[in-house]
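I'm stuck. Protein, please.
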Amino acid sequence: MAAQWSFEQIMTSIAKMDRAELRQRIKDFPGRFRLDFTDDYLGAAPVDQLRHILLAAAINAKSGRN
């Protein structure tokens, strides 16, 4: 149950972020791998796509800790 709560917390947190915060979190993502997107791409991508990228990275990082 704690894992579900954590996932929901991550989803809610990302859903509240604006473009500037999403861009910064993607650029500074502290995962096992570097997210390497250009500023041009991050500036042109739809906000929902940025949320998807960050959520996917967060899920991957969480699953790697188990």
User: Anything to note?
Assistant: Helices lie at 2-16, 19-27, 39-44, 47-63. The first helix runs from residue 2 to 16. The chain has one domain: 8-63. The chain has a mean pLDDT of 89.
